[in-house]
Amino acid sequence: MPIDPQMAAAVERLAAPPSPGPAGESPLALRRRIFRERAPWFAGEPVALATVEDVTLPGAAGPIRGRRYDPTGEPGLPLLVYAHGGGWVVGDLDSHDTVCRILAREGRCIVLSVDYRLAPEHPVPAGHDDVDAVIGALGSTLSVRGWDGRRLAVGGDSAGGHIATIVAARRRDDPRLRGQLLIYPVTDARTDTEGYRRPELGVTLTAAEMVWYWETACPDPAVRALPELSPARRADLAGMPPTFLLVAELDPLNPEGIAFAEALGRAGVPVELVRAAGLGHGFARMTGAIDEARRRIDEAGAFLRTIFA
Predict the structure, then answer these.
(1) Which of 42, 130, 157, 179 could join 116 in a cystine, given CB atoms 3.0 to 4.6 angstroms apart?
(2) Which residues pair with 181 in a beta bridge?
(3) pTM above 0.85, yes or no
(4) Dihedral sign, CA of 48, 49, 55, 58?
(5) Over the chain, what is the mean pLDDT?
(6) In the chain, what are the domain boundaries?
């Protein structure tokens, strides 16, 4: 499984030491700063949309930030609620601005990006509860300008994909829910699955880093053992919405993503499994530097057009 040359160039650049930070910067603050500062390296020019605006959303424990992406400014569009990646610990609206813009334009839909609460200050499942609260409020206490009120999808990448599919399971009886869009999602809380035993997959995210994210975001082993947090192992997947599941070939989460797609298929859920050859974890934020990454996110947009048609 050779690495894509543009992906290899990105990996080389990511190996550069971080810029100097403030005195006394904690390891957690450093990790968050690196994630934030490096996002523009590979994002490319922003995709032009009719409107991009910050909004306030009703989270599970109070107001949280969000961002609304409107591709046309016309009324009657479908809506994608999006949860960013970052191991439930890092990431924000800005770090995933590029992918939200592309999905809005290619999916011909409004995208509502949710700045959910992060761990360890707010352990898992706080972020899941925030996104769930936003969807629960749609059409009642939360009005999204331009949305037709009838067509809804939920999506996310990495930890955000984990959030998205758990919320989709909670909301599977919502008649507005047309699909879920999952980009290299976390789908198994166990950290001893195949991907963790294959070091050659760790080109941008190593197994050790993924273990750190789990233990930092969800330090209680009893919580990590909850069936809800391991979608790939759940036996009650019937009734989940049509799914687009995009995995990166060089990613410790690749095997569990494929396992989840197979489990959904066995439960009778329509699944489109797309494998991004030669790419590593995090490529959705590298569409300005990696041609294959842009092609795959465009495919995700095409999925949205299909389920919203």
Answers:
(1) 130
(2) 155, 244
(3) yes
(4) negative
(5) 97
(6) 5-14+27-308
